[in-house]
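## Example pair
The file below holds two records. Each record gives the amino-acid sequence first, followed by its structure token line.
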Amino acid sequence: MTFSERLRAWRYNLVPDHLIGEVLTKRWTDNAIPFAALVATVAVFGSLIPGFFKVASLQDSTRQLGEFSVVVTGLVVVMLGGGIDLSVGSIFALSCFAAVSVFFIFEQSVWLALAAALATGLAFGAVNGYLVGYLKLRAFITTLVTFIIGRSLYDILVVSFGSKIQMSSASSDTWDFIGDGTVLGVSIPVLAAVVLAIVTHVALTRSRPGWHVLAVGGSRRSAHNAGIKVRRTVFFTYVFSGLCSGLAGFLIACRLSGAGPGTGLNLEILALTAAVVGGNSLGGGRGSVAKGVMGAIVVLVMTNGLIRMGYGTGTNQMVLGLMLAAAVIIDIRWMKNRHKVLNEVYVAPVYLRMSAAQSAVPGSGTAYELDNRLSEADHIGLGELEGPEDVILDRDDHLYCGTRHGEIVRFLAPDYRRSEVFAHVGGFPLGLAFDRAGNLISCVGAMGLYAISPDRTVTRLSAETRRSWTSVQDDARLRDPNDCDIAPDGRIYFTDSTKRYDAHDWALDSIENRGTGRLLVYDPKDGSTTTLLDGYRYANGVCMAHDGKSLFFAESWACRVHRYWLEGPKAGTAECVIKDMPGYPDNINRASDGNYWMAWLGMRTPSFDLSLRHPDMRKRMTRRLPQDEWLFPNINTGGIVKFDETGGIVETLGDLAGASHPMVTSMREHKGFLYVGGILNNRIGRYRLPDADQAWTSVDSYWGKAR
């Protein structure tokens, strides 16, 4: 390796560029900007204003924050549902008036005052919800009208009954405690806001109605087509917002023990600014309560800070307007360009210098020399199949394979001319194996590990494993489960080819060539899935050794085969038994003579091997060229290799003309025939093995003869 290559390897293998893309895919990264704004705002005003962090100052500010956050929480739910509520300020003011009127004028209990405030908010929220949700009026105009009507009504009531409120002698310790008291140093409005925020967050993220709100906000038409009652969902978002404004109105009524002309004035502007500055989308469907609370803190700290620094109302309004404009611009631009940013940074290739391989060219005289025997294979299901990635046969000689349409098809013995859909699994069924009870186990791309019983019942066995502590990306989910095999004790060993890409993005994984594949085991006794090995370049085929004490698995992009020991002094360790192959290994299965069959899904090419030493070139390629012009592993032609227990190559088979089986992803020996599958093929091949045991079957090899 030259010095420049060594530098290139250090740069691309040691610098974790891929972490940037993984971080940006996270939903919580949307919180980064509002959180940074929050920290900056508190730091700036905390340093400029003397006594900003004193207990008395913080308690007074947090009381306002509690009331304000309650209003913002309600508005956020409306925005998540795809709406907007400009009437929160007038509802807030009217609810405050309702509470003080019941308590001071009618001299009723505190709890009746709370009920009056909530009823006021409920009534206005229901009006907004009915007009916007059921009558489908424009949310902006509708809530603007209710804002004007509500504000006008409030002004009339304050002028008419303000003096009676001020002259009342009604009092209550409970009223005063809600307004001025604390619990462990925390004011009641803050406690109410925290409880409301937690409950709302849980409801939005963990309950069916919450999911409906997000679905409606994302796309009302899609939500309707999915069976969600869109009108009712929109109606209840406005009802909830009204109730929140009603609760906040009661809290400020207790704190001020009155209502004046300035109550709730411009609150709708403050609340909307807080929700948007926090990162909640005006388009709906994207945001969270936490973002709204962060935005509320930013807005309240900034407005109060400017007032304490001597700036007037005009300055406050201008700053709020600038903040709102900036937040809207960032939201729109980020939503429009997020995928472009991810495309620029997510794919992070590494440096790899592949060792020279022996030639597979006919006449080369190497152990890997391909012949043309597979061209003599017969066709099964020609034109009826699309993508039979793996094939397997049962005790009755019936032939099974998965298809690209999510079905497992069964061809009936003895001539395999008749076929039926054995089961519809969904996804893309890949690796197949039969357990002792006759259940068909399948790795389903992007879905997980599944079992199909003899009566065709489909059961999901596993879709995730434990998440590793050091992973930024959620590596618990099985993204590309590929091949599986079953140990004598019933445990299912299978591969997850890559943790960074879904099955259909295998080309990106090959271009990046980062070790993200792993070997896992599913234990049917307790239903657990455990990661055994990690860090392989596209972990692929799995096959139990004949003695059941170890297994072989393929590492496709590294052109290697490894042996993992289940028992003995090497238990829990893996060793490479075949390396530097001229082809990319795929599924591995037992042979009748005690050896093992292995598929080559494609052959190495000098051009791609060279590109692996130039990660910068591969990075530019994925950014500047359309996908159909990318350079990635050749999977258009392959072959079949037989190897022994030590990894020694016994023989190879190929189809040089590409007429029958141009690419191979699996093969299964059964009663003297080799059945061949390919993920890009439209048929299954059937090749006679002249020297094979004519009575041998893989099912008997694993589970013994049927009784």
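Second record, same layout:
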Amino acid sequence: MAGAGTEEQLAQRLEELLAVERFAPPESFTEHALIKDRSVHEAAAADPVAWWAEQARTLDWFKEPTVALDDSNPPFYQWFTDGTINASHVCVDRHVAAGNGDRVAFHWYGEEGEQRDITYADLHRDVQRMAGALKARGIGRGDVVGIYLPMIPEVVVAMLACARIGAPHNVVFGGFSAESVRERMEFSDAKALITVDGARRKGKTAPVKVNVDEVMGDLPALETIFVVRHTGVDTPMTDGRDVWVHEAMEAAPAEVPAEELPAEHPLFILYSSGSTAKPKGILHTTGGYLTGVAWTHKYVFDLKPEEDVWFCSADVGWITGHSYIVYGPLANGATSVMYEGAPDYPHKGIWWELCEKSGATIFYTAPTAIRACMKWGVEHVEPHDLSKLRLLGTVGEPINPKAWLWYHEVVGDGRCPIVDTWWQTETGAIMITTLPGAQDAKPGIAGTPLPGIDAAVLDEDGNEVPPNTQGLLSLRRPWPSMLRTLYRDDDRYLSTYWSRLGRETYVVGDAAKMDDEGYVSVIGRIDDVLNVSGHRMSTAEIESAIVSHELVAESAVIGQADEDTGQSVAAFVILQGDLEGTAELEADIREHVAVRIGKLARPKRIIWTDDLPKTRSGKIMRRLLRDIAEGRALGDVTTLRDPGVMEELQQLVASEQSESG
């Protein structure tokens, strides 16, 4: 970062920039961009199905499809049905065959300073061996394989080995409890599980296999548990069931060809988290999914594989990791950074240190992480040379303008375009954003639907609402990377996504607005919209106003029942640094919100806190905040990054209520 000056000068600069509504890409960026104008949008709009078929042809098919879209049974859409393909072949074999085997696929870094470089040739060797190890244990086409691993190269090898033999993988985030793993293995009837002896986090090593053993014993379908030796902790092995991965790979054949699979062959199941009901097993298939992630990764991030180093800070256990750490980057022959560790260990500048060390040119992270970096301060960014960064991205939730501007100025030095991407586990790939060489970015506004995507903001009758009017964000046309169903639950698939506006309109569950240029502001989940005295307001909009206060680091807003107004605004607020909340500051924040949005949006209740309940992907669990604020029994907290936050918040709220009453 150059010339940011003191924190006070930066704060003043950000306040001035809040008045800037749009940021054009630098001419130097557009000059070398893969897409320089909006003609690609026009070409896709003229014939979306043919356009997607053209993008699919960039993959390496065994049999190139002649049929693009089968829409004979909506919403059970299928793509490229007469084509045959293999994701492992697309992501590894074709690059080796093209002479790029020596290219680094992953610069892997451990939290204690370890480093491994894994080339495409290394992946090719290890994926074949792992595929052979799976087959030796009777695992084949259609058998589900669970994967429960930390952020180590073996997780990629495991995923690609499954894809190579046509065994759909079911990855469970490495931070989930063993009980969560068992639940997902049981729902999917997994035949095997690939796990690890132990995992490290912030300097500590936790046993993993031992915990898995405690809950997995009586699953009838689970025949084999493969164990990666990673930390060396004591690991009991059950004879006949448990296999060390390194031993199984040594015994496996060196060559295991990628199987020729139909385009609609299941590639993976990924269970959603945070629901009070049983998790939803979102099913993605091969050809369409690869088409979506390969195109979006290349063109949304302006990727040039021979030049760029790609750093996505997500975990492979989430869809962002599936699409933009594994399948998208590898399909494009990219070099990526993979980090096994927390963003604040061994220090709060570790991401920026790794960017400098690896020469990262593109960085992709979540708004919640950006806000954490803001709170930690620019002193953790400044020591590191980030001059090679040329593009930044955000994912996971709407980003408030203040965080967007901090990211732009402090990390990107004011010269890196930012792509604010909206998409879901269900969509498989990015749906809404700006193409960085062709479109201006508007802080806090995601962007326009990508080429080939028909996104609209609709009312309850399915009609488009006027510009800048809140409605239901919906996708009105099938796209290749869309989920095909919920695993073994077609009825739930229909009722969850296709019942509100019919079987040809996918209602995504988010409220949004679209301006007169077609830019979409994603406001938040439909159930995160408040109704105060008949006025509909989004939690995200109020949160953004609160966070724009100079002393606020982060906020989460919920609606509470109110006798006078129907609902009132309650805000959980984290202050900058070591500041403590006062009555004067509370009044100042309420007035600040009134100025930004209007008096109706002022929080009636402010609860000062040091942390918020978040999933491991960084999303704030407002449902749990509502439970706490209204004194209800807590729902499922197993998916939280730190379940202990809930106990602290309960004590805070109880103390607040005691003092007030």
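Notes on the second record: The chain has a mean pLDDT of 92. The CA atoms of residues 653 and 659 lie 10 Å apart.
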